[in-house]
Amino acid sequence: MSPEDVRKELSEWLDANWDPNRPLIEWRNILVDGGWAAASWPEDSYGRGFDVRQMAVVNDVFSEKGIVGAAQAGPRRLAAETILAHGNTDQKKRFLRPILTGEHAWTQLFSEPGSGSDLAGASTKAELIDGKWIVNGQKVWNTSAHHADWGILVARTDWDLPKHQGLSYFLINLKQSGVEVRPLKQMNGHASFNEVFMTDAEVAAEDMLGTEGEGWAIATTTLSIERQGFARGRNQRSPREAKEGSIYVEFAEELAIANEPYSWYPQREGRPDLVMKRAMDTGAINDPVVRQEMAKLMSMSRAAQLAAKSAAAIRKAGSNEVVPAGSIGKLGASVIARQSAHVHTMISGADAMLSGSDSAEAGVIAETLVSVPAISIAGGTDEIQKNIISERVLGMPKEQRMDTGPFRDIKRN
Amino acid sequence: MTEYTQDQETFRDVVARFLQAKSTPADVRRLMDTDEGFDRAVWQQLCREVGLAGTHIPEEYGGFGFGPVELGIAAEEMGRYLYCSPFLSSSVMAGYAILNGASEANRQKLLPEIASGSTIATLVLDSVNAPEQVGRQLRATGNELDGAAPIVTDAHVADLLIVVAEGKEGLDLFSIASDADGVAIHAQDALDTTRKLSRVVLSGAVADKIGHLSEAGLEKTWNQISVALAHEMIGGAQQLFDSTLEYTKVRVQFGRPIGSFQALKHRCADLLLALEWAKAVTHHAAFCLCAGEEPETASMAKAMASDVYMEAARAAVQLRGGIGFTWEEDTHLWYKRAKASEVFMGSPHMHRERLLSQIEEAS
């Protein structure tokens, strides 16, 4: 379908169906049935198989007309894309629609206190008892878990196999008595994440994604989607300008909840966008040493934009090197964030000792300085990204492993 | 955007295949020990068969009529193979200066011979540090030139010198035969012997005034040369990166390939990121020259390419260990080119200051 045809068909469909005073969920169900909630998805999963060019038109039309689209904010996208890639027909049918309509919020249950970078070392246990999976263990760094309905969970189903082979991937209902969620306060004062404790929590047999032992392979799909998000930067849509219609009120409430944990995310990227303004305001623009560091930062930022574009072009041309492209981009984002925090510190001087609403940019600079360490850790540390880049992109030999053989015999925390 | 067409990729293949055969490390070593420093027969063949000397010179002046993108492609491959030739001096530097500053009649007269390779020219700048320093040493009184240019590439083999000198009304452009009265060319010992340097002294030398180089014209020329040089540098950096990576996979110590050690892996990953960034900006800068957009990307490219070339060169020596510091190993050939290119036509810090000023002015 040509971009012109996409525009015409979508516009006609919207003219017939869009009503800003419909209840939010009801509207999104109509959107799903019309095939416009996720047009890039395959036709058998509510989509139209649209390519990047066709999707650009869809997004343009939605934005021009101020249409509320499918629910996207928060970790639900990770769940949706993973289910799309690995789910069976029944799972896609049951789980994808409520994700698109916003009825179900999701969280990611991967990291554990004992396995951070070494994600495949997870020791949360899932046992099949009387036709149900019984889960015991603790997860951590679970964004939005406190208002999630479901979780994507990696747990160990076999302790005698090597560690990567003994994991399975589950879709777990969090609204049950065996699941307890506690907030986790970070060094920047926010509490965007949670700890999730599972004690004899239950998962129905049909809610395993893929087959037993396939957990690691499926988790790498989720991680790769997550890394692309880091490289691209979050694209959380803020509430639209005040428009007439009850649906905008509902949508704004949904976004406020979903986006709350991410309020400081721009700061972890170092806020390079504020550098020129701060340098002008403070007069630091006249310091030749600051100017050198600013120029380095601006060059890096421009380079990262350009490199991301050519990576997208390469992917479009049919390469499937998605994981490494994400890793290079994520590593780059860390380098830029550190350089930006460095420049902000030079610009502020002793004022960088202050925080709170009276400090520079109403506290945004102070929050930046204590938030940038997150970007080189979350979603796989810089060190892990460098391992991935060197081994998978550059083909360097793997280091000798100390964690082979049955998982139960491996040294762990 | 920075995507090459099929024709451009084919052009790259043609240049690369030629240089792979004609500019092996053994060829480079042989030529760097000669006074001339390049192989005339190979250069003439490259001009005749590929038309390389006229890559970016418009067809009306006898060139190929390609732009900065194709010029960049050629320069990148020359950097990779460390090709010894007067290409940068004659086609890029003198060529661009004439295009930007010479009168129409002088372009008609001078460019076809440069484009065909039958004349070797070079650009005589009294400063190769920063554009604002140009014209402080070379003075023009009428058609008479006086002063010295301490660092001029390939003057020892040039037939023609294109001289930028300060006249009554700013910078003027002159041409003079290299064997004319009042012209003295003293060969300098260069750190990088694959690109020969001379000190050019002019004492009442009578030249042809071929045009005027405005401040904007000089800035543009400087940008064009910087972008071509940046391409040459990322080509060299890529070559060093590739060969070093290969070495870490085959060199065994402590019973394992050294590339399996995380310290080396992480260094290579960092270098890949820096190289991808420098390549992205450098390729984009050539497209910007074509489109007349984002002039600051030229300095951005030169600074980033300089830094990454040296970073790759340091890693290339360091990761090879002792063998990397020997004369026998080829790495030092590129290391020296990296060091010389880092400071030629402006150091990274000059270019960073320049790009920041340009961004400031634009905002």
Give a brief outline of the structure.
By secondary structure, chain A is of the alpha+beta class.
Strand order of the largest sheet of chain A: 1-4-5-8
* Gyration radius over CA of chain B: 20 Å
Order of helices and strands of chain B: HHHHHHEEEEEEEEHEEHHHH
Beta strands of chain A, count: 8
Written as H for each helix and E for each strand, in order along the chain, the element string of chain A is HHHHHEEEEEEEEHHHHHHHH
Give the spatial strand order of the biggest sheet of chain B: 1-4-5-8
CATH architecture of the largest domain in chain B: Up-down Bundle
Helix content of chain A: 40-55%
| Helix segment tally of chain A | 13
Description:
The complex is a heterodimer of chains A (413) and B (363). Chain A has three domains: 68 residues, no CATH class; 116 residues, Butyryl-CoA Dehydrogenase, subunit A, domain 2 (Beta Barrel), CATH 2.40.110; 125 residues, Butyryl-CoA Dehydrogenase, subunit A, domain 3 (Up-down Bundle). Chain A contains 13 helices and eight strands. With 363 residues, chain B is an alpha+beta fold. Chain B has three domains: 111 residues, Butyryl-Coa Dehydrogenase, subunit A, domain 1; 93 residues, Butyryl-CoA Dehydrogenase, subunit A, domain 2 (Beta Barrel); 147 residues, Butyryl-CoA Dehydrogenase, subunit A, domain 3, CATH 1.20.140. Chain B is 54% helix and 16% strand. The longest helix of chain B has 36 residues. Chains A and B meet through helix 10, helix 11 and helix 13 of A and helix 7, strand 10, helix 8, helix 9 and helix 11 of B.
